[in-house]
Amino acid sequence: MNITDVNKRVKASKNKKRFGRGAASGLGKTAGRGQKGAGSRAGYSLNAGFIGGQSTLRQRLPKRGFNNANFRTEYIPLNVAWFEENFEAGSTVGLEEIAAKGIKIGREGLVKVLGTGEISKAMTITVNAFSQSAKEKIEKAGGKVEVVAAAATSEDKA
Fold first, then answer.
1. Over 60: is that where the pLDDT of 99 sits?
2. Contacts of 91 (CB under 8 A, 6+ apart)
């Protein structure tokens, strides 16, 4: 017996099943898809929640609790380290200056300064909100923080 004969019949991977290639293949005629119906046809995909014509489980469960998604205030976060890199000492930084540096502020125009990183330049920063640590770091560097109110939207006026 030769050592090369040991693995002669063993393959590294199985051949894929070839559907619809005659009765002898074991998967001829209906190709393993059963008889009639949507599942036997090409392109059919079942909705994940579909359970045979009745209401889905998701629809039958009670809706409970409060979701704040419609009312939350979303800010664009900027760290104090970003101001250190992008602005000179003594400058006044507002929403227009931030937008000029390539930050997309969008319709709401809400920016919040967060305290990650260090700041050593004294500057006046005028945005919508500050974290406590960011406020402390800016004032420690000799700068000033000014909170500007968010512009009222048409929804707020109604």
1. yes
2. 97, 123, 124
